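Reopening this ticket.

The earlier resolution said the output was attached, but the attachment link was broken on my side. Pasting everything inline this time so it's all in one place.
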Amino acid sequence: MKTKLLSLRYFLAPLTLFFAFSCGQQTDDNSGLEIVNASTENGMIELTTEQFNAMNMAWGKLETDQFSEDITVQGAVRVPVENMIDVTTYYGGYVSGLELLEGQSVRKGEVLFYLENPEFILIQQNYLEAKSQLNYLKAEYDRQKTLFDEQIASQKSYLKAEADYQSTRAKAESLKRQLGLLRINADELQPESIRSKIAIYSPIAGFVTEINSVPGAYVQPTDVPVRLISKAHLHIELIVFEKDATAIKKGQTVEVRVPELSSEIFVAEVFMVGQSINDARQINVHADFKDESKESLLVPGMFVEAKIQKDPEEAISVPQTAVIESEGKMYVLVLRNKKDSGFSLEKIEVQTGRMGEGKIEILPNAKLSDTDQILVKGGFNLI
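Inline output:
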């Protein structure tokens, strides 16, 4: 009796496994929608209508699109030379009222600091003296000219009066121009308004980048006490190697990324290409931002990575989802027969080229035509 029970136990064990396996297969068969169940016959892939609909597959055809190769370069954010200002003075003097900080914004016409020098007093004094003499010398010159014309006075007296008048006139005009350099209005200058201190104004609206002086220091005309920069117009300066120089042209699109702003993509356009190659076999390429409102996110000197798009060319393409890679080769699936129960697909090897905006270039292939219906979505698991 014990032996019979053991035999029955060993008989039921594999039977139980058999039924369990059969039930598992039945579950898979009932789904009927798994792509792995697509069959292959005579080199064709058979696909049922239920599978096609369940996987949201879609058909498409060969299209003509424009593709452009990218040239990867590096560069930096720059400002035009006219937006980089060295604030200098035409005359030396002692600095006062300097209260700036690096990075501080300044308005155009804002006082940056003051400059004091006794020489300023002398220039104003000399101008007022020359100006006051002009009326007398002009009257004397006119009188001597009249007398000379009537042959009453000698030519010598007339020429001396003319020389004195013209000399003083030139001196007054020279001093007036010097006062202009000091930002002193000569027409409003009066003896009681003479001053030894002049204001140094900001010539642009921008930011302070350097401060090279302190209150009380003496500044020479060749010194640069303050440097300013304006971010009103930023651009990108890119470095392109010699081998790519001939492919760069004005108007090409540039995609710019800043490592510190990885989520932002800045679009620029080439506006100037360097015309000489430096010792490192490189040329400089300048590009302007298309959306200037984004320039506020950037700081001059920032490192950037960019891709310059070459001139686009037309080519045959399909959506990138239509191309399936298998064992190192690329394929597309083409509809060869449509039946009530499903579709027969042919696997065709293709050579691909450039990619962009969800499209991929298909190089000329004798097995493909413009009328072929190609599976452009959902064919990943069929091969």
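Reporter confirms the inline version is readable. The chain is about 25% helix and 35% strand. The two ends are 57 Å apart (CA to CA).
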